[in-house]
Design brief:
UDP-N-acetylmuramoyl-L-alanine:D-glutamate ligase, eleven-stranded mixed sheet, six-stranded mixed sheet, 33% helix, alpha/beta, single chain
Length: 498
């Protein structure tokens, strides 16, 4: 279909008939010739000529705000229940408004995923690192790149901030459209299980899919690991060109068994024989030295990062570069000059001769991997500070406590986005696991005070890990979001120690 777009300041316009296409819907007061100037699911953001999609969310039902949307200028409404509106306005009744939002947003922004090479990365841990590694390699190859994920978006070098770590379909396609208009050729997109399950990428195709790993997380939503896996599997049934799979992960092997040869795939790993392997990993001067075997060829590489699990995040980035004919002459210098990724094993320099690390590790597997990595270079004590999010999977709290106790010398249990839960209750859940070990521990509910305490007691050669929040610059207490930057708190505290 040819789309008749009208250029507007900051956007486009599309005839209603073209926007709806063949989407199944019952329409009242139909007028297919009207121009739709925008799409919104937030009634406060509706402008004259927009279409309002009323969604049922986890806490808010958009159908309750239809009158507000009309007053703000909505030209048409998308609903999935009877609304009893008497105004002379187009009503589009659908089976599921969230599904309709994904479909309509994709058409309104002219299916931006088809205008770029769109690479989707999914898994419990490592998604952000994979996308940043890949973007760095492609940037050095002078490709026009963008990424979108937990840390927000990057269109070339321009930062895009997100209100939520997992954006809805409208936000995803709006930002991807900006990528297209900016001349982006390659888009690296973190694809969460929520994005796949909640139809945020429902009508989107990917050229390449990447699987990192699957470990315990989000079970408050998915209920079981099998449901969690089935959500992730959806990505690899939507890829058009290639899949890149971690063969060391049992769920990675299940993906390969499930998808067969529907598209070619590249396997990667460290423990098992794969198309791309890393071997002979050594630590020296805060860097990793290793041998890369890629389709039978051998390369000696250096990664400017001391964290061994990051090799798992690096291998799929190298695989992706290989698929687009980016060679080792580009990859090698990129790895040796790699910058730190915000909140991902981010080391904060200081004059006290101890190591301070901020990492997003908020799952049992993620926390264990970071602590094991610290064993390789920590000459003093390993001090870990962490908590657990409120109103989320409670079963992982004691598990994380036990892991922290087994792999550290001192544990500081504190708060981490308690949301509407009692932070003391969350801490007590964590202590169940800690008490299974013999580790020394202390509880300090106020996270700022906990950070200050950790840095004040740290001695030369110690390593201090601040785990769980990573890139986040906020904390959620009692359902209210407050500014909270661990990086800034660390810098402020270090000044008082000089």
């Amino acid at each position: 279909m040819t789309y008749n777009y009208i250029c507007l300041k900051g956007g486009v316009s599309l005839k209603l008939a073209e926007l709806l296409g063949d989407y199944p819907a019952k329409i009242t007061n139909e007028n297919n010739e009207i121009d739709i100037l925008g799409i919104e699911h937030n009634s406060k953001k509706i402008q004259q000529g927009f279409i309002f999609v009323a969604q049922k969310g986890f806490t808010v039902d958009g159908h309750k705000f239809i009158q507000s949307a009309i007053e703000n200028g909505a030209r048409a409404l998308v609903v999935d229940q009877d609304v009893g509106i008497e105004e002379d306005i187009i009503i589009i009744r659908v089976e599921n408004s969230t599904d309709a939002l994904a479909y309509l947003s994709g058409r309104f922004y002219n299916k931006p995923w088809e205008k770029m090479e769109t690479i989707g990365v999914t898994g419990t841990n490592g998604k952000t690192s994979v996308t940043y590694f890949a973007k760095s390699i492609f940037d050095r190859a002078r490709k026009e790149t963008a990424l979108l994920g937990t840390n927000g978006g990057l269109i070339k070098d321009r930062k895009i901030n997100l209100a939520n770590t997992t954006p809805d379909s409208l936000t995803i396609y709006k930002i991807m459209n900006q990528m297209v208009t900016s001349g982006v050729e390659y888009c690296f997109l973190e694809v969460t299980s929520h994005a796949l399950e909640l139809k945020r990428v429902e009508y989107m195709d990917f050229q390449i899919g990447v699987f990192t790993n699957l470990t315990k997380d989000h079970l408050d939503y998915h209920q079981s690991m099998e449901n969690y896996f089935q959500s992730k599997l959806k990505l690899f049934l939507r890829t058009k060109k290639h899949n890149i799979i971690n063969i060391d992960d049992p769920y990675g092997r299940r993906i390969i068994d499930s998808i067969g040869e529907r598209v070619p795939y590249t396997s990667y790993g460290i423990k098992n024989k794969a198309d791309i392997n890393a071997k002979d990993i050594k630590h020296k001067d805060g860097k990793l030295y290793f041998t890369l075997e890629i389709y039978g060829k051998v390369e000696e590489l250096i990664l400017n990062n001391p964290c061994e699990f990051n090799i798992y995040n690096l291998l799929p980035a190298i695989a992706c570069a290989n698929l687009y004919n980016i060679g080792m002459e580009t990859i090698k210098p990129t790895l040796e000059e790699m910058k730190q990724i915000k909140g991902r094993f981010e080391i904060i320099p200081n004059k006290k001769d101890f190591i301070i690390i901020i990492d997003f590790a908020h799952t049992p597997d993620g926390l264990e991997k970071v602590l094991i990595a610290m064993e390789k270079f920590t000459k003093g004590r390993r001090i870990v500070l962490f908590g657990a999010g409120g109103n989320r999977d409670k079963s992982k709290r004691p598990e994380m406590g036990e892991i922290a106790g087994k792999h550290s010398d001192l544990v500081i249990v504190t708060s981490d986005n308690p949301r509407k839960e009692d932070p003391e209750k969350i801490i007590n859940d964590i202590l169940v696991g800690i008490k299974r070990t013999n580790v020394e521990y202390i509880t300090i509910t106020d996270r700022r005070k906990a950070i200050e305490y950790a840095l004040k007691i740290a001695k030369a050669k110690d390593s201090v890990l601040l785990a769980g929040k990573g890139h986040e610059e906020y904390t959620i207490i009692g359902g209210v979001k407050y500014p909270f930057s661990e990086y800034e708190i660390v810098l402020e505290t270090l000044k008082t120690l000089e």
